[in-house]
Amino acid sequence: MKQELAIQARSISKTFHISEDSHNTVKHRLFNLFNPPRRKKVEALKQMDFDIYKGECIGLLGRNGCGKSTLVRLLAGVYPCDTGNINIYGSTLLMNLGVGMSHQLTARENIYVSASVLGMKIKDIDNIFDKIVEFAELQDFVDTKIKYFSSGMVARLGFSIAVNAGADIMFLDEIFAVGDMKFQEKAIRVFESSWIAGKTVILVSHTMETIQKYCNRAAFMKNGSLVYFGETQKAIELYVQDNA
Amino acid sequence: MVKSVFVDWVKRSNKNERLWLLAKIEFKLRYYENKLGLLWALIKPLMDIAIYYVVFQVIMKQAIPAFASFLFIGLILWNFFLESTTGTVQILNTKKYLYEYSNMNKLEIYVSTLLSNTIGLFFNFIMFLLFLNILEKDAMHTSFYTLWIIPLFINLFILSLAVSLILSNIYIIAKDITQVWQVFTSFLFFLSPVIYRLSTFKEALPTFDYINPIAGIIINARRTTMESTNPDFKLFLFDFTYAIILLVIGLLLLNKLGSKAAEKL
């Protein structure tokens, strides 16, 4: 049976041009016409190709600064790539410490906005609203602006929205670091239940156990290059060797 | 990009709901946080009218018939343009939370903000019609010609969206576009026939009703709502084309610069 594509990446790469002086005003640009800002090139991702299929759970491994987060942002459609192209088939959700929320809005408004951004209809959000609030343990703060929340409360709300609303393709960047121990256990339980069933997941984690347990394929990255993409066990071995 | 937005809209109706949801929340944030709430949306143009009335009608004796209504319709259209452009220069920064975690189309953020301003304009326009029909003695009352306000408003909406796209994308590479635009809009206000008699305006600044894209919209809105006549069709078509061209430039900028907003802002 032919598998359906979720993400197709062809010759993608990304370089950041970091300017050392701030030339981001009209005045600066005019006064420094003949003195262009010094720019540093940071090659965050070197050219790579790969396909990810619907329903797969892919682990992404590599040491800090190897380009995992940049790759995830590119694949989620948040950053544009410099070369090549990415075809994304479905809505995406990038989640590190929760989803994007406005601190000016109440928990209720954030739930509706975030779930709607993830592609849900209002009627469907109405149905899962109580579940989201209950899971985040925020029943008494539904109409409070989240700027008054503690960072743990915000993270719980973000996690809860992501868990209950979801998206076709989910990028989970170290998500098990959210909340206290009790909440973490709950998060793992949810992850083990049917949450990710039928969804495409790209999991970034430094915990080998997590990768081994949930991923059917894994990628190992080093210095912006995709060194290996295939069997989970082999990717883990490469990562462990790199850390040795 | 426009094609993809359209196809998405047809396929997945959740987009319309989302636009309306974002517009409602934006509207609520702007007005309901204040003590006087929605009243501010109505007080602001009324206060402006009072100020300009005293200066231009009482002190400078311009003797424009139905000057209060003349100002009213001019100001509410101008304020819509001003709020939709000045208020959105930093939109890609303030609404980053909407596109930083998902592949949501950025154009929706602009449209929802302008929709929220449209709610305010709608209330103001109802106030204008009440004022014109109940209190004004020197102007024609509402007729079928008033319906021309709908295409004129669509023109204003496209123009505001276009300018908003252009400014907010320039903001990514030049932050002080905010200050530059503030100065420019003061200039543009006095170069629009909001507070002057049309003949004086045309005499002093010939062809300016064509150069300034908001001038024609205000002129035609007055013709249709206060004088019960057709709009100046040549001016109307010219302004519509003007707005569409600016919109194309805005969309190109959104594709070119806006796609880098998440990493640059």
UniProtKB/TrEMBL annotation, chain A:
InterPro entries from the UniProt entry: AAA+_ATPase, ABC_transporter-like_ATP-bd, ABC_transpr_TagH-like, Bact_Polysacc_Export_ATP-bd, P-loop_NTPase
- Output the superkingdom of the source species: Bacteria
Q: Which Gene3D superfamilies match?
A: P-loop containing nucleotide triphosphate hydrolases (3.40.50.300)
For the ABC transporter domain, which residue ranges apply? Answer: 28-244
The entry's keywords: ATP-binding, Nucleotide-binding, Transport
CDD domains, A to Z = ABC_KpsT_Wzt
- Pfam families per record: ABC_tran
GO molecular function terms listed in the Swiss-Prot or TrEMBL record: ATP binding
Say which family it is in: Belongs to the ABC transporter superfamily.
Entry-linked PANTHER family: TEICHOIC ACIDS EXPORT ATP-BINDING PROTEIN TAGH (PTHR46743)
Protein name as it appears in the record: ABC transporter ATP-binding protein
